[in-house]
Write a structure and sequence with these properties.
This is RNA methylase, NOL1/NOP2/sun family. By secondary structure, the chain is an alpha+beta fold. Helices cover 28% and strands 24% of the residues. The chain has four domains: 83 residues, 2-Layer Sandwich (Alpha-Beta Plaits), CATH 3.30.70; 209 residues, Rossmann fold; 88 residues; 60 residues, Archaeosine Trna-guanine Transglycosylase, Chain: A, domain 4 (Roll), CATH 2.30.130. β12 and β13 form a beta hairpin. The longest helix has 16 residues. The two termini are 13 Å apart. The structure holds S-adenosylmethionine. S-adenosylmethionine binds next to α6 and α10.
Amino acid sequence: MAKRKARPPVPQAVPPAAFLARMRGLLGEADFAAFEAAQTAPVRRGLRLNLLKCRDASAFARIAGFSLSPLPFSPEGFSVEGGDVSGRHPWHHAGVFYLQEPSAMSAVTALDPRPGQRVLDLCAAPGGKSTQIAARLGGQGLLVANEIVPGRAKILLSNLERFGVRNACVYNETPERLCAAFPGFFDAVLVDAPCSGEGMFRREPAAAAEWTPETPAACARRQRAILDWAKTALRPGGVLVYSTCTFAPEENECVVAAFLKENPDFSMEPIPCAFGRPARPDWGGGEPSLELARRIFPQDGGEGHFVARLRMGAGAAAGTARFHAQENGDGMDDAQADVLLRAFFAEQFGEPPYGRPHAAGEVLFLLPEELPALPQGLRLLRAGVCAGRIKSGRFEPTHALYLAAAPGACRRAVDLPLGDARLAAFLHGEQIEADGAAGYIAVLAAGHAVGFGKASGGVLKNHYPRALRTL
Ligand SMILES: C[S@@+](CC[C@H](N)C(=O)[O-])C[C@H]1O[C@@H](n2cnc3c(N)ncnc32)[C@H](O)[C@@H]1O
């Protein structure tokens, strides 16, 4: 592998004195001492396997050169040491793993999404929890991942594409507009709310610098508004998970207590995994069922999270979603897109096309089966997989199409070991050697697709997206 530049040291955050005083008051002397001691321990790095691409953690660790230890927060999550644990690792480019703060994995464990369900991740960027939900869905059902900030929504899309997710729609919407378009539609909704980020002070010094004693109350107002919209997108009997990465009771127990008071058709449910410790009913006005939510403090093995799982009563009233059929515009119709994609898949992949072929002008998509049509008028970044476009009468595939290939499916491929200089060159954007017939060829990193190129005259023209190339 190419030699890596040493990374500059991460600046150390100084927790505000008022924050520490609050924590001392909340936790009491003994627990506060443990909290403070954990704050100075080395930061644990978390790695989550992409179950869509790899389920064998020992083989993964051996080949990737990592040492993995299980975490209590999620069965597919590990604390990681050794090797090149970074976004530059070829298997990171291939979407085989996601680097994530360990306790952040707990929210999807609490949500417990199952294949075939319709799931909404309402505050989704950069996609830590969306990629985990998609992996748990195993390609069946639907994930709607939404992010309000445009630039962050693009990063969310990029991470879902890297993970090879086929059955997601990515939106850049306000919670209000998104939920109004999907009334009563989802089996499960995750609100991983914007918060004061007290659990991220060590990793994000900016969060510590911005914090004031008034921040939690301001965040709580926004969180309650988001939850009010989130509930409208849930079907009766569905599950709502609320999570934050902050410690402030105002943003955790108090927000959930107020929600339960205003929505008697919702009730707290136990989380099917005993990470961290029970939440504190006395920090949320005394509602006893708050004890079913969980808190994770640094002394519990993660930077900090709060997770509550609520269920909507099965008899509650729900709205009905109304969708409109997609239009094709000029160019192919869906039947022609189907024929073209079948031929391309037969040549390139050992599986037929998945989803529903759809042509929008010159661009061809494989739409999620679970979404018969799309709501109109929303800022949609992607529905399903963008397969490619017709250019000068020929089909040109996308990077996302190769990343979404099932493991072992690429028929025409050059498979390079992780440390191979040609792999480093490809990820850097260079041409590499290619034997054999001309045409599109997948580039694999030890069995997993990282992208593709077009072979001609013994070389592979590089189609690795510029924005993703290593420097
Ligand atoms: C805690 S982060 C989400 C992290 C994400 N779930 C993950 O695991 O990668 C909260 C997100 O909410 C977004 N956000 C900020 N203000 C919002 C608002 N008023 N409504 C909805 N989302 C908002 C932020 O841009 C941010 O991406």
